[in-house]
Amino acid sequence: MRFFFFHLMPYADLDPDYDKIHPSSWVTLPNSYYDPAKGAALYHRYLDELEYAAELGFEGVGVNEHHQNAYGLMPCPNVFAGMLVRKIPDTAKIAVLGRALPVLANPLSVAEEFAVLDNITRGRLITGFVRGIGAEYHSLAVNPTESHERFHEAHDLVIAAWTQPGPFPWEGKYYHFPHVNLWPRVYQQPHPPVWIPSQGSRETIEFAADSARRYTYLQTAAPAATLFKTMQSYRDEAERQGYQASPDQLGWSIKIYVAETDAIAREEAKPHIESFANKFLRMPQEMLLPPGYTSMASMKGLIQSRKTITSGYRTMEQMLEQGTFICGSPQTVIEQLAEYQRRGGFNIVMAGLHFGTLPHALTMKNIEIFARDVMPALKSAVPGHMPRAAAE
């Protein structure tokens, strides 16, 4: 099992009563709620937490991209990756999960920024491409019906810029460049590894598992039942493509809290994981899945999955039962992760060890206990044969 520490960088000082006036912490929440002095302190604190995880032996650290919300203060994840590069150990990787290609005006800028990071890290960069959740299309005024086409063209342009000798012209439906001639070239050949985080759409799984790509698929924001289903869907698609998927092509992004005992862990985590689920993640369905954002088949599946994580007030106990949160003593967390790996067949764990309003001291404690007591017990763990019956 491979472990990465993932941070969302929320505005943890958000007024908890905002939802009495506003329906969501996304898109329409007035930025008057943001105090620059508090925000600056949070940024420095969050960078400290990422650096600490890298020092304690996580394979890498992960950042991501969201726009105009209190849920995640990283509209420019490459900036944060750049700040981390020179301070974390030279054995630790940096995963940018990921750039939201369809909502960005210039994919060549993404190709250039990733190429710089790949050189600075001397090949320790993991790149991520996403379409961006529906709220991003509201924030940046992009037509959601163009999401898939823009994503595929932008992706193809970035890969071409990384792998083809330049200069060459690019004439697509959305992007037009007379000269594609990337300086610097990427450090890793033919290009940095690509991971595809997703909520579980059928189209994304097919894209990632395609035999020409074989990208690592990272399941996000879903209950355990959805995790098992999407892991199996990826393996099935790989078989249709003529190869057997490796467990290293499958990962899970999951919020985790570990403490001395189950009772202590639950007491310490409860108010903060519930703030994450009910304050920061709060979003109307039409904001999450705008018309045209995904196919009808995927829409039905996503709506059903998201009901368990966006409908009504969610308690920590419900999240533990659904498998959207893991919490307990080191032994409890070890046993649960091992069982999820056995049933899901994945090797990569993107551990969200900070969430919501979890304070700095508890975050550092969580990172330390997880690195000291959980990771060593599971580093040699690999999924065994994954029969379809188990996934079902």
From TrEMBL:
Domain Luciferase-like: 42-344
Keyword Oxidoreductase annotated: yes
Gene Ontology terms: cellular component: cytosol
One GO molecular-function entry: monooxygenase activity
Entry annotated with the keyword rRNA processing: no
Alphabetical keyword list: Monooxygenase, Oxidoreductase
One protein family per Pfam: Bac_luciferase
Protein name, entry field: LLM class flavin-dependent oxidoreductase
